[in-house]
């Protein structure tokens, strides 16, 4: 029997036999690369045409044995994305929701990030981006930096305060760090 586009040759999903075996094989393969939420696996099984009853049985069993743990996934996701990408709680919450983690599991994971963590992350992002803005005026730099923080989920108040604080501490905009050629522009 020829392989489908979604499955490699010899894939158990090619066998129209036991739907639970097919669902198990699909889930195990998906979990090999990285952790997934129950919703992500359910969506995958649906796309692969696994009957809903078989999918539910396999997902329930995987949850019982700990192969699917949305709370652990949420904690790891929040920790990784907040530290690595500097995302604010609002952006993290949206990402968790998109992955099928909502409610109490998401709230508990988001509680790991406090206000000070967000402030430190926002500051780090601004400090990292600031050198690339050395040729623009303070107003433009402020707009760009606040916009960058907004795209990462930070509220306007925190973003503005952090940007202002970093710009003031670095003396950004008080001199042009060169011969002042920008002042001569029309």
Automatic annotation (TrEMBL):
Ranges where the RecX second three-helical domain occurs: 69-110
Subcellular location: Cytoplasm
Disordered: annotated span: 1-20
Gene3D superfamilies, per the entry: Winged helix-like DNA-binding domain superfamily/Winged helix DNA-binding domain (1.10.10.10)
Sequence ranges assigned to domain RecX first three-helical in this UniProt record: 23-61
Keywords carried by this UniProt record: Cytoplasm
InterPro entries named in the record: RecX_HTH_1st, RecX_HTH_2nd, Regulatory_RecX, WH-like_DNA-bd_sf
Pfam families (UniProt xref): RecX_HTH1 (PF21982), RecX_HTH2 (PF02631)
HAMAP family: RecX
Function: Modulates RecA activity.
Similarity field: Belongs to the RecX family.
Protein name as it appears in the record: Regulatory protein RecX
Species classification: Bacteria, Bacillati, Actinomycetota, Actinomycetes, Geodermatophilales
Encoding gene (name): recX
